[in-house]
Design brief:
The chain is of the alpha/beta class. The chain has 8 helices and 14 strands. The protein binds zinc ion and fe (iii) ion.
């Protein structure tokens, strides 16, 4: 399928994403942090928005919607509809919809908020994870429990490893510093750090990443990895407790 994918930096450190089907001319936006840069990208390419997919209700993911929606179909979580902007299509985990001619699966990835969803395009190989799974990190637990977020991350970890993980923020440098504080000698971390630093030195986004890379280096996806458990002094702990401890340490980092 001839899809064009564009990452659009917004606000201080947010990302929105555009997908365009070059045959049907449909255009989808994933999250709407602010209208200006997204509008500029659409105008530059001569694209007209047909769908807007919202991952969760936080202002830095929806505040640009009013200036962008036009006649686009706005899609978001049924369970969080009361806190989201007005939706044209309410979706729940297990639903399958079609966007830009591609099937899109809905996953409930609650934890950062209750009702945070991820949009997974298995055929095209994209997962839009916003503030659930992030590059080297995961979202803060504002509403959910560690068990909920770990469960959400396991759903995402089960996707094909080559899946392109499109998350919501450029937090990777800080996330990497935190990961290395847990495992200073982890060679995979050291190697990814040099790639991240090189990208940031040039002002290049570190998002998206791939699931395979996250599985190897993201501490929040490795709560059942014996090496990480050992590194934080919880070799025999349950993955949920390991995840909770890692999240707590990151909150205080
Ligand atoms: Zn958020
Ligand atoms: Fe956010």
């Amino acid at each position: 399928m001839p899809l064009t994918f564009v990452t659009v930096p917004c606000l201080k450190d947010n990302y929105a994403f555009l997908l365009h089907n070059d045959e049907t001319d449909e255009t989808a936006l994933i999250d709407a942090p602010e209208a200006g840069p997204i509008k500029a990208e659409l105008d530059k390419r001569g694209w007209h928005l047909t769908d807007v997919l919202l991952t969760h209700h936080h202002w830095d993911h929806v505040d640009g919607l009013d200036g962008l929606r036009g006649d686009a179909r706005v899609i978001g979580a049924k369970s969080d509809a009361s806190r989201l902007p007005p939706l044209d299509l309410e979706v729940s985990e297990g639903d399958e919809i079609t966007v830009c001619g591609e099937p899109v699966e809905i996953l409930d990835v609650s934890g950062h908020t209750l009702g945070h969803i991820a949009f997974v395009m298995r055929g095209a190989g994209y997962a839009f994870t916003a503030d659930s799974l992030m590059a080297m990190g995961c979202g803060r637990l504002f509403e959910g429990t560690p068990a909920q977020m770990w469960d959400s991350l396991l759903k995402l970890r089960a996707l094909p490893p080559q899946t392109v993980v499109c998350s919501g923020h450029e937090y990777t440098t800080n996330n990497m510093a935190f990961a290395l504080s847990l495992e200073p000698d982890n060679a995979k971390l050291i190697s990814r750090k040099s790639q991240i630093d090189a990208a940031r030195d040039k002002g290049v986004p570190t998002v998206p990443s791939t699931l395979a890379v996250e599985m190897e280096t993201n501490p929040f996806l490795r709560a059942d990895d014996p090496a990480l458990k050992q590194a934080i002094g919880l070799p025999d702990a349950d993955p949920v407790d390991v995840f909770a401890e890692v999240r707590k340490r990151k909150d205080n980092f």
